[in-house]
Amino acid sequence: MGQDKALLTLGDHHTFYARICAKMLFVPERFLSVSPSQDLQAPGYTVVPDQHPGTGPMGGILSVLDRFAGRRLLVVACDMPCFTAREGARLLSLHRDEDALVPVVAGRWQPLAAVYSPRMAPLFREALNRGERRLRNVIARAHYRLVTVGEKEASNYLNINTREEFEELRRKFPLL
Question: Does this model's pTM top 0.85?
Answer without folding.
Answer: yes
